[in-house]
Amino acid sequence: MTGASSCDIKQLIRSIVFETFDNIPTRLLYTETGTVCNRDAQLSHFEASPQYSRLLSLASASDGEPGEAEIRKEVSKYFQYATLSHRWGSGEPLLRDVEGTSVYDLDGTDGLGKVQEFCIHAFGRGFLWAWSDTCCIDKDSSAELQEAIGSMFSWYRWSSLTLVHLSDVSEAGSLADSMWFKRGWTLQELLASPIVLFYMQDWSLFMNHDVANHKTDPAVLAELQKATGIAEQHLTNFYPGMDDARSRLQWASGRRTTRPEDIAYSLFGIFKVHLPVLYGESAENALGRLLAEIISQSGDVSVLDW
User: Fold this and answer.
1) Contact 192, 153 (CB under 8 A)
2) Which of 7, 72, 79, 181 is 20 to 30 Å from 221 by CA-CA measure?
3) Which neighbouring-strand residues pair with 205?
4) Which residues form a coiled coil (predicted)?
5) Taking each helix axis from N to C terminus, what angle separates 50-60 and 39-47, rounded to the nearest 10 degrees?
6) Burial level of 72, CB count in 10 A (0-12/13-18/19+)?
7) How far, in Å, CA of 163 to CA of 205, rounded?
8) Is residue 127 a contact partner of residue 78, using CB atoms and an 8 Å limit?
9) How many CB atoms lie within 10 A of CB 254?
């Protein structure tokens, strides 16, 4: 293969990687080392990977070069990632706490231990990449926080697995007893994630059901319906948008957020709306903006009585 052709293949691979980046979080934990990686680091890891070497070796082989479909398959597989869904507790590590080091090398807080366990379990299930809303967002940057809130639903939707940690459920407990079902942000995380596994306080699987997806387990689905009041078809195959908007608001009516405004912001993805995030406004104002957008798009004024 000529040098020019080799450069063309490298450029095609890189362009497909950047297309993939459009659908995944800006920062990810590299589970093998426990480090937080930005786009440059993610690209560097890929270009040092066996998958990248294989694509280049196919390009240099005498029988031709990898097609675009094959490149997309390899890139997509490499960047599969797991997401964490949880209740925030004490000592959650922020980006500034872990940047430039490995989460595996740190100690001292329950929150840090949770991120470590999350990375270990994600890596054990074959994922090189993982995302947590604690340390993978620069919350000191209002622009990045705005982008993250606007993208979070799709990040959970595009994840290959969501690990839910129920810090208050033991082997004798039930899902419905967990405060996880009373928090605002976890509603969109449950609905958006196509594949979910529930882990109890000690990081053992709920009901000890070693299945690929708890959303397909009849016993767990029954517990989920009991805990949320959401019908099975929405739990297993949810689509964001304005359909039956009043019911969607009712799903959130018994949930709470630490910051009052977040009760509205946590619903943006569920309704597929894009509105400014204005921390400091009242919950009433944030909900008012959301309801006005819902009525504008759907014409359903019954949402005012949710």
Assistant:
1) yes
2) 79
3) 199
4) none
5) 50
6) middle
7) 10
8) no
9) 10
- Residues paired with 29 in a beta bridge: 36, 130
- Is residue 221 pLDDT above 90, yes or no? yes
- The pTM assigned to this predicted structure is 0.94
- pLDDT tens digits for range 271-292: 999 999 999 999 999 999 999 9
Q: Give me the phi and psi of 86, to 5 degrees please.
A: -165, 170
Whole-Å CA distances, 199 to 9, 21, 63, 99: 42, 29, 48, 27
For residue range 265-274, list pLDDT tens digits in order: 999 999 999 9
Scored b (16 or more CB within 10 A) or e, 90-101 reads eebbebebbeee
- Residue given tokens 């989460």 in the structure block: 103
Domain edges within the chain: 240-305
Q: Which residues partner with 196 through β-bridges?
A: 162
Task: Return the axis-axis angle of helices 68-78 and 50-60, rounded to nearest 10°.
Answer: 170
Does the pLDDT of residue 4 top 60, yes or no? no
Average pLDDT, the chain: 93
**Rounded to whole angstroms, how far apart are CA atoms 234 and 3?**
52
Distances (CA, A) of 206 to 23, 37, 231: 30, 31, 21
Q: How far apart are the first and last CA of the chain?
A: 65
Tokens for 100, please give them: 């430039």
Q: Which residues contact 67 (CB under 8 A, 6 or more apart)?
A: none
DSSP calls for 69-110: HHHHHHHHHHT-EEEEEE---TTPPPHHHHTTS-GGG--S-H
Quick one: 248 exposed, middle or buried, by C-beta within 10 A (0-12, 13-18, 19+)? buried
- Where would I find the H helices in the chain? 3-21, 39-47, 50-60, 68-78, 95-98, 110-124, 142-158, 185-192, 218-228, 232-236, 245-252, 262-265, 268-271, 283-298
The answer to whether 116 touches 192, Cβ cutoff 8 Å, is no
